[in-house]
Sequence to fold (133 residues):
Amino acid sequence: MLLERSLKARGNILLGASLIAVGLLLACRSTTAPLQMTLKTAPDHPSMTKPMTFTVHLTDDHGQPVNDATVNGAITMKVMDMGTTKLAFSPKGNGDYEASMKGVDMSGPWNLAVEVAQGSAHAKKDFEVTISD
Ligand SMILES: [Cu+2]
Fold:
């Protein structure tokens, strides 16, 4: 009974600690990232053997498009180390930034990490991109 209780207490402490960690992470994000971004992939379901284009849409905390940012991406495979391919996004107006790739070496789940800098404002976001055969 006593052992059971102390295990439960330990579980609660762990849960509390992880909630605090998540809270800090969210707080950190909201203060350092007034920039919001979304990703579109063309085609919608990219194939590893065909060219694909990524479009990042960037807005400020008022929902207005941001056109003067520097946008860089790094794509990695999620399930194994296949190196990192860096992508430089070009501004296309209306808050859109584009980067293209000729294809990838393997199908499956990839991660596109996008980093945005505009003056002193920075934002980073991970997008999962599923690439088929
Ligand atoms: Cu792979």
Notes: The first strand starts at residue 36 and ends at 42. The chain has two domains: 1-32, 33-131.
